[in-house]
Design goal:
The complex is a heterodimer of chains A (191) and B (298).
Chain A lengths: L5 E6 H8 L10 H16 L5 E6 L8 H16 L7 E8 L1 H13 L3 E6 L4 E5 L3 H13 L1 E2 L13 H10 L3 E3 L5 E3 H4 L4
Parallel strand pairs in A: 1-2, 2-3, 3-4
Antiparallel strand pairs in A: 4-5, 6-8, 7-8
Chain B lengths: L1 E4 L3 E2 L4 H10 L5 E4 L5 E2 L1 H18 L4 E3 L5 H8 L2 H5 L4 E2 L15 E6 L2 H22 L6 H20 L3 E10 L5 E10 L3 H14 L5 H9 L13 H12 L3 E7 L1 E5 L9 E2 L5 E11 L8
Parallel strand pairs in B: 1-3, 2-4, 3-5, 5-6
Antiparallel strand pairs in B: 7-8, 8-9, 9-13, 10-11, 10-13, 11-12
Helix pairs in contact in B: 1-2, 5-6, 6-9, 7-8
Classes of the chains: A alpha/beta (191), B alpha/beta (298).
Chain lengths: 191, 298
């Protein structure tokens, strides 16, 4: 039986108010970002494994670059490392137009990428992504999953499998033990 | 008695003269003669506090401040919270006016920044007033209040992370009818900390060898995004502030030590780099955001 990741919803706005101070409504300053990231990691530590975390920014109005670096980039980097604390995947939701730039900038600076649901409801990749990775990710996203034995779609370049492997390494799709790939948004029940 | 006469207009253009004069004092009582000041903006007020604090440290005595004779100027300084902050720094030549209790038109009063909580406080405080000024007066899009708050947050964090000393921030919008024909929002931030050269020296000075100095350190941070942190992922604050200020066709300049560096839009005539200033501690940041016009397209 395929082991599907357990979904975990994380309300960043609520977490900020609980873990930092009830008076602060905005995600600004590096120590605030660090506190929120640690609170997310602590929630993850209590969840099942693997986990798909739906990190929700809907209740966040202001997100500065320092906080974006801590709450998004450093969080992703930590769970990409070989000695990551646990097996976790991330989808960021509630990303408004004014959140996109800080997130995009911090991800690009660290050559990272993330799956995000933006204000329109569309799912996008933010950060540093090649056009080929974008196309392959979109294919999985629209299909919901791609079986290991499926042949590459017509028109895709010869290195298509390598590109899919890169998406797995970057944790932008979920590989099950059979080698099938699943769209993170489906597993997080966003679609 | 050393006398530093303050100019009629104490703003981003005349600030260096005040800081240079204060840096030249090495002892004895000082009089900051403000009698002829007819105009003062956040850069002038925050600069005056910085000069006063530096003189207090250098001479061991609070410099005496002679209030502007034009009565509306001290009144305005009171509304900006200047006298509250100056209480422990300057000795007043006369009783300063009290701040009125009515509704204030001030965007952001002079606010000390010494902890992260202060940065949160500043961001919270500007939410209501900044929205109205940015959209109605400067004709920026509604979302600009978020970007403006991010600028304030990053610029205040610059004090905490790099200066390792307290500082101040203030902001206000003005009608620069004669000078520019439109409204301008002025943000001033200053600290008396280590300055950019001091902050970056342990990590980067060896690489620059003999060329290392205030101007090189400013260029390294301002243009290349270097920071004192070995972590190469840091240092986006100033870069992102510059990007946003450019989008709004604004001007940003930073003085630190003996140099000042600036991003200069077409409407401003500040030199992009000034060297050979007197060595004044810390850093002083000025940001000017002009009203959006159809012509400027910004």
């Amino acid at each position: 039986m395929t082991r599907r990741p357990d979904p975990l919803r994380i309300d960043v706005g609520g977490l900020a108010r609980r873990s930092v101070a009830s008076l602060y409504a905005h995600l600004v300053t590096r120590p605030t970002g660090r506190a929120v990231r640690l609170a997310i990691e602590s929630q993850l530590a209590e969840a099942g494994e693997p986990t798909i975390s739906l990190v929700d920014f809907s209740q966040v109005t202001i997100l500065d670059f320092s906080c974006a670096d801590e709450v998004v980039a450093r969080l992703l980097r930590r769970y990409l490392e070989v000695d990551r604390p646990r097996d976790a995947f991330f989808v960021f939701r509630g990303i408004q137009e004014w959140h996109e730039e800080p997130i995009q900038v911090v991800l690009e600076r660290q050559s990272l990428a993330a799956v995000a649901q933006v204000g329109s409801g569309d799912l996008v990749l933010l950060g540093s992504v090649s056009p080929a990775e974008e196309r392959a990710w979109r294919l999985v996203e629209e299909a919901g999953s791609l079986a290991a034995g499926d042949s590459p779609p017509s028109g895709e370049e010869p290195g298509f499998r390598d590109i899919l492997e890169a998406l797995v390494r970057r944790r932008l799709v979920f590989p099950d033990p059979a080698g099938d790939l699943h769209a993170l948004s489906r597993l997080a029940a966003l679609q | 008695m050393n006398v530093i006469p303050l100019p009629a207009s104490l703003d981003h253009r005349s600030l260096d003269g005040l800081l240079d004069a204060a840096a030249r004092i090495d002892g004895g009582r000082v009089l900051l003669d403000g009698r002829h000041v007819r105009w003062i903006d956040p850069n002038g007020m925050v600069g005056l506090l910085s000069a006063g604090r530096h003189l207090l440290d250098a001479t061991g005595e609070r410099p005496r401040f002679q209030l502007p004779e034009q009565s509306d100027v001290p009144g305005y300084m009171a509304r900006m919270g200047f006298f509250r902050e100056a209480e422990t720094i300057l000795e007043m030549g006369a009783s300063p006016p009290r701040r009125g209790g009515g509704a204030s038109d001030v965007l952001l009063e002079i606010t000390p920044i010494s902890t992260n909580a202060d940065v949160h406080e500043v961001v919270d405080r500007v939410q209501t007033s900044a929205g109205a000024i940015l959209s109605r007066t400067l004709h920026y899009p509604l979302a600009a209040v978020v970007q403006f708050s991010v600028i304030l947050s990053e610029v205040c964090q610059n004090i905490l992370e790099h200066a390792e000393a307290p500082g101040w921030v203030a902001a206000q919008a003005y009608n620069w009818q004669k000078r520019l024909g439109r409204h301008v929002l002025v943000i001033a931030v200053a600290d008396l900390g280590r300055g950019f050269r001091g902050s970056l020296a342990p990590e980067h000075s060896a690489r620059f060898g003999d060329r290392w100095g205030d101007a090189t350190a400013l260029e390294a941070a301002f243009i290349h995004g270097l920071t004192r942190f070995p972590d190469s992922h840091r240092g986006q604050g100033i870069q992102q502030i510059r990007k946003q200020v450019r989008r709004w066709d604004g001007a940003i300049s930073i003085r630190s030590g003996t140099a000042r560096i600036a991003d200069v839009p077409e409407w401003d005539d500040t030199p992009p780099l000034a060297e050979g200033l007197e060595a004044f501690p810390g850093s002083q940041i000025s940001i000017l955001l002009p009203e959006r016009t159809e012509e400027s397209g910004s």
